[in-house]
Design brief:
It is a single chain. It is built from five helices and six strands. By secondary structure, the protein is an alpha/beta fold. Strands 2-3-1-4-5-6 form a six-stranded mixed sheet, covered by helices on one side. It has one domain: P-loop containing nucleotide triphosphate hydrolases (Rossmann fold), CATH 3.40.50.300. The termini are close together. The mean pLDDT is 93. The chain is globular, with a radius of gyration of 15 Å. The longest helix has 12 residues.
């Protein structure tokens, strides 16, 4: 049995939302930055133990706050991946407030925070950085290497069913 679930990717511009989506859906990565205008929609089926989840992934143009994203883009979301750029503190300084506000708008919807671009850090620097974050991320990922990308989307699929 296959169920369809709408997933939205949120976060500031340039954090890697499109790169994570491209890595997950197409197994590709591009060094060239291309800004998303509005929303880009992709689809991928994730096979879980007892069912398949057709993830309709809405890669939403980057904004400094989810309140600037059109409500229509968030309407009907079953899950959220909120992406931060570990190299840019401005993308996570208000993370706890942003997630709390998002939870009010989307109650009972799983939200996974993902710290992207981990490949740009040593293991020690990464550990030190995580201690400074206002919220613990679900995963530290790299769209470039693919590290933790599949695991993040698969975990969200599990939480949505």
């Amino acid at each position: 049995m296959t169920v369809s679930k709408k997933v939205i990717l949120l976060g500031h511009y340039g954090v890697g939302k499109s790169s994570l989506t491209r890595r997950f859906v197409h197994r590709k990565f591009s060094e060239q930055y291309s800004t998303t205008i509005g929303v880009a929609i992709e689809k991928k089926v994730v096979a879980l133990e007892d069912q398949e989840v057709s993830m309709i992934i809405w890669d939403i143009a980057g904004e400094s706050s989810h309140t600037k994203v059109p409500q229509s883009h968030k309407l009907g979301a079953h899950g959220v991946i909120y992406v931060i750029d570990l190299t840019r503190p401005d993308t996570y300084q208000e993370l706890d407030t942003e997630i709390a506000n998002l939870q009010k708008y989307l109650p009972n919807v799983p939200i996974l925070v993902v710290g992207n671009k981990k490949d740009l850090f040593t293991e020690k620097d990464l550990c030190d950085l995580v201690k400074q974050l206002p919220l613990s991320p679900f995963a530290l990922s790299s769209a470039k290497t693919g590290d933790s990308v599949d695991e993040t989307f698969t975990e969200l699929a599990r939480q949505m069913v």
